[in-house]
Design brief:
Elements (H helix, E strand, L loop, with lengths): L2 E5 L6 H9 L3 E5 L10 E4 L4 H10 L3 H9 L4 E4 L1 H6 E4 L2 E2 L5 E6 L9 E8 L2 E8 L3 E4 L4 E6 L2 E7 L2 E4 L10 H11 L2
Parallel strand pairs: 1-2, 1-3, 3-4, 4-13, 5-7
Antiparallel strand pairs: 5-6, 7-10, 8-9, 8-11, 11-12, 12-13
The structure holds glutamine.
Length: about 190
């Protein structure tokens, strides 16, 4: 069985854990370095990216998590998680710099500031929650995975999938199913 870790320093881990379990995976909360040894894939959830980055540094998790990503393990980053992985955030270097995209924090106006929207994937559409979502200004050479109208909101780049929204809050399973698939074939 595939085991998925959800980084649980701050932000919304609980719904991600439940969603993975509902899809037949095993899910554990990741709070310390040794937890990374027990997992096949990692979810970096939404929350507040500055707070999460500070906690990652304080708990000495920046390098172990970075190494886990560099080793090619499947990763799903949502909202604040996407901000943490991006190479460029608001014109400055991002925290992990593992995902070659440019993002702007809290960049949506009233339309997608805190609302549900239909995300279109190649395989169908699902409702998802946008909460002070980051905007992907430039997705570089990433594969576009999900869109809201013409706006790119989910991407994949190698072993990393990232979405600017919260799929777990609306029980949207597309990205979690894909993550389990990637982990099973890794
Ligand atoms: N705006 C938040 C940040 O900058 C991200 C919002 C979220 O994860 N829901 O970290």
């Amino acid at each position: 069985m595939v085991t998925v870790g959800v980084l649980a320093l701050q932000g919304g881990a609980r719904e991600h854990l439940a969603l993975i379990e509902s899809l037949g995976g095993k899910a554990i909360a990741v709070k310390k370095q040794s937890d990374l040894g027990d997992i096949d894939a990692l979810i970096i959830p939404g929350g507040e990216s500055t707070t999460i980055s500070k906690l990652l540094t304080v708990f000495e998790l920046k390098k172990p998590v970075g190494d886990f990503i560099d080793a090619g393990n499947p990763v799903l980053a949502t909202c604040a998680g996407l901000i943490l992985l991006a190479t460029e955030v608001d014109g400055e270097p991002g925290y992990f710099q593992k995902l070659p995209i440019k993002v702007k924090r809290n960049a949506y106006g009233a339309q997608l500031a805190s609302a549900e929207a239909i995300v279109d994937y190649q395989q169908g559409s699902e409702n998802a929650a946008f909460i002070r979502a980051p905007k992907i200004l430039d997705s570089g050479d990433s594969e576009v995975v999900g869109k809201v109208s013409d706006e790119v909101v989910a991407i994949r780049n190698g072993n990393i999938m990232a979405a600017s929204y919260h799929p777990e809050l609306t029980n949207s399973t597309m990205l979690h199913r894909k993550l389990l698939e990637m982990a099973a074939s890794n």
